[in-house]
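so my prof wants the structure for this chain in the tokens format not the other one, which i didnt know existed until like an hour ago. anyway here's the sequence
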Amino acid sequence: MKAVAELFKVLSDEARLQMLWLLFNRDELCVCDIMGTLGITQSKASRHLATLRHAGLVTDRRAGAWSYYSVVTPTNPFDAAILETLRTQVSALPQAADLLTRLDAWLKCKSLTTGCGGDSCCGTSGKGGTHD
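here's what i got, hopefully its the right format
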């Protein structure tokens, strides 16, 4: 029961749910993609991604100075069922489509600039994100 409680504790944060939703819809994302889409700082993004990683829900890959994250396919049938239910139910929320629109805008802007960390794309998040 403790593992179940820990999973729900990890999933009880809106920022982590948003991050999972973004990652459900892309093979992998750079931390800057999550920052730009959600309009959050690097430290907040990294803290939440570390929580998701420690829970076994995402994995990371380093490429130079950048970290890329992707969703892990759970080996535990309970976790797999919870994540699939989460994916299905979140997809029906209007906010889910808005997040993907913001992500697409961020990725488009990023492709036209010099990559991650470009302050010129911060306005696409709609929240005036900052970069640490």
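also thought this was worth mentioning. Strands lie at 29-30, 58-63, 66-71.
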